[in-house]
Amino acid sequence: xxxxxxxxxxxxxxxxxxxxxxxxxxxxxxxxxxxxxxxxxxxxxxxxxxxxxxxxxxxxxxxxxxxxxxxxxxxx
Length: 76
Ligand SMILES: [Zn+2]
Fold this sequence. Notes:
Elements: E1 5-7, E2 14-16, H1 29-47, H2 51-58, H3 61-70
Antiparallel strand pairs: 1-2
Zinc ion binds near residues 10, 11 and 27.
């Protein structure tokens, strides 16, 4: 049974449309987040809300950690 393939809406790369792929129809989580981020920005800009943006930040601890590591530790 052939695996259906779709094009990533973000980068146009051909990706296998697997049910087990949580990022479908995107090729990767990166493309998914970029697309969702762009969509959310438009939506929240219209709605005038900023609360949801905080939730998005919490979803990416990997990006927050290196940023945190760069910060110098404050002396007591
Ligand atoms: Zn992609």
